[in-house]
């Protein structure tokens, strides 16, 4: 991109990105989406989740196709190549606003959860501001730190979910799934609707991270994305099956945080109890990753749109956008459900799927692309952290070794 400068380079592996994707998908969607899907598909909600798995992978392939056609460029950069400077910047502004709104919604989800279940009586703004301090620090450290956090949280999350599944098997009621597809396949497909809004439409956040993948791992990216989508599908189906089998349709529909309420039912000989606290910690961890990625993506794209030398000056101003917006975005749980189903889903699909499809189609029609060359990946003009970053020296050495002394950014 003209006028941009390559600063210190940070890199992540394809495996790290796939783990970040897994945590991103399970974020707010893992706790809240099953309730929305069950309200529509009832006991066939798990079928809706199973159908969504391949759709997630198809959407990820859309973003990957753009990344492969414009290697080393973020969404902000190839938007300008395709649409010209002013239209490209206008589209980038749309995505910056989308990422910030998504950050505010995710933050509001965690505020509601902690305020109702863990910290009752605590003012919403206190929870929001405290949680954002951690996000600000992570964004300041850069993408390598975010990716390492994702690796740690991934193992912990998978282990806890697996243990919870085992502890709940003795409460499982197969009759809760009867009658099977009693209204035909229409209802399971209708149950896809909330999933299309989140997390599927929100996966566009990943397009800000593809260019940071190490050059040696670029060829492995498709495989790792496929594995991540498969794991997301398996865990989503598993969670839905557990909710229906343990709580049933009616109780799952009534609960705003059904997984947390399901964990409250665990009691093994009065020894293993209060497991919901561990579930809360795991869910907060996944939300942390989703909020971190959305917020970081917003600062990165905005810095590139404004031709800034670093994304860091935008962290604090964007924080004072996200926190108040998270408080004001909706009034109560009833409004939240209306917003999620009637507003966010079509909006998210438009921004996250329809526009990228049009960009890819336009790229094919016009024949525009960026030739791949040594140093193109991970990213050009990454606007990453300066050389005083804790991982800066290591990243530069890694980049030099992988790109033959070039400065991939």
TrEMBL record:
<protein>
    <submittedName>
        <fullName>Germination protein</fullName>
    </submittedName>
</protein>
<feature type="transmembrane region" description="Helical">
    <location>
        <begin position="46"/>
        <end position="66"/>
    </location>
</feature>
<keyword id="KW-0813">Transport</keyword>
<feature type="transmembrane region" description="Helical">
    <location>
        <begin position="343"/>
        <end position="365"/>
    </location>
</feature>
<feature type="transmembrane region" description="Helical">
    <location>
        <begin position="21"/>
        <end position="40"/>
    </location>
</feature>
<keyword id="KW-0309">Germination</keyword>
<keyword id="KW-0472">Membrane</keyword>
<feature type="transmembrane region" description="Helical">
    <location>
        <begin position="225"/>
        <end position="247"/>
    </location>
</feature>
<feature type="transmembrane region" description="Helical">
    <location>
        <begin position="86"/>
        <end position="105"/>
    </location>
</feature>
<comment type="similarity">
    <text>Belongs to the amino acid-polyamine-organocation (APC) superfamily. Spore germination protein (SGP) (TC 2.A.3.9) family.</text>
</comment>
<keyword id="KW-1133">Transmembrane helix</keyword>
<feature type="compositionally biased region" description="Low complexity">
    <location>
        <begin position="389"/>
        <end position="400"/>
    </location>
</feature>
<dbReference type="GO" id="GO:0009847">
    <property type="term" value="P:spore germination"/>
</dbReference>
<dbReference type="InterPro" id="IPR004761">
    <property type="entry name" value="Spore_GerAB"/>
</dbReference>
<feature type="transmembrane region" description="Helical">
    <location>
        <begin position="152"/>
        <end position="172"/>
    </location>
</feature>
<feature type="transmembrane region" description="Helical">
    <location>
        <begin position="192"/>
        <end position="213"/>
    </location>
</feature>
<feature type="transmembrane region" description="Helical">
    <location>
        <begin position="280"/>
        <end position="302"/>
    </location>
</feature>
<feature type="transmembrane region" description="Helical">
    <location>
        <begin position="314"/>
        <end position="331"/>
    </location>
</feature>
<keyword id="KW-0812">Transmembrane</keyword>
<dbReference type="Pfam" id="PF03845">
    <property type="entry name" value="Spore_permease"/>
</dbReference>
<feature type="transmembrane region" description="Helical">
    <location>
        <begin position="125"/>
        <end position="143"/>
    </location>
</feature>
<feature type="region of interest" description="Disordered">
    <location>
        <begin position="372"/>
        <end position="409"/>
    </location>
</feature>
<dbReference type="GO" id="GO:0016020">
    <property type="term" value="C:membrane"/>
</dbReference>
């Amino acid at each position: 991109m003209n006028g941009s400068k390559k600063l210190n380079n940070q890199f992540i592996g394809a495996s790290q990105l796939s783990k970040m994707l897994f945590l991103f998908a399970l974020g707010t969607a893992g706790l809240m989406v099953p309730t929305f899907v069950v309200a529509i598909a009832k006991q066939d909600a798990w079928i809706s989740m199973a159908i969504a798995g391949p759709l997630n992978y198809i959407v990820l392939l859309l973003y990957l196709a753009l990344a492969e056609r414009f290697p080393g460029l973020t969404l902000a950069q190839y938007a300008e190549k395709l649409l010209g400077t002013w239209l490209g910047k206008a589209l980038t502004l749309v995505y910056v606003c989308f990422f910030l709104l998504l950050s505010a919604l995710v933050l509001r989800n965690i505020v509601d959860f902690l305020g109702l279940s863990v910290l009752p009586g605590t003012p919403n703004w206190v929870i929001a501001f405290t949680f954002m301090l951690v996000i600000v620090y992570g964004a300041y450290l850069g993408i390598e730190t975010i990716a390492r956090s994702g690796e740690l949280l991934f193992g912990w999350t998978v282990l806890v979910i697996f243990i919870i599944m085992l502890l709940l098997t003795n409460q499982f009621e197969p009759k809760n799934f009867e009658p099977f597809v009693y209204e035909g396949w229409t209802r399971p497909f209708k149950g896809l609707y909330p999933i299309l809004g989140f997390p599927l439409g929100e996966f566009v956040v990943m397009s800000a991270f593809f260019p940071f993948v190490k050059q040696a791992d670029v060829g492995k990216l498709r495989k790792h994305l496929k594995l991540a989508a498969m794991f997301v599908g398996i865990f989503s189906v598993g969670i839905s099956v557990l909710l229906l089998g343990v709580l049933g349709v009616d109780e799952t529909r009534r609960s705003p945080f059904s997984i947390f309420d399901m964990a409250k039912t665990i009691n093994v000989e009065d020894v293993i109890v209060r497991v919901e606290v561990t579930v809360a910690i795991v869910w907060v961890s996944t939300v942390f990753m989703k909020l971190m990625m959305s917020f970081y993506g917003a600062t990165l794209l905005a810095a590139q749109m404004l031709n800034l030398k670093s994304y860091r000056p935008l962290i604090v101003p964007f924080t004072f956008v996200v926190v108040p917006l998270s408080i004001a975005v909706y009034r109560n749980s009833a409004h939240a459900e209306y917003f999620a189903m009637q507003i966010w889903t079509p909006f998210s699909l438009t921004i996250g799927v329809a526009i990228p499809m049009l960009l890819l189609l336009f790229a094919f029609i016009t024949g525009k692309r960026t030739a791949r060359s040594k140093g193109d990946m991970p990213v050009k003009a990454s606007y990453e952290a300066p050389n005083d970053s804790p991982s800066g020296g290591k990243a530069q050495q890694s980049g030099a070794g992988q790109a033959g002394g070039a400065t991939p950014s």
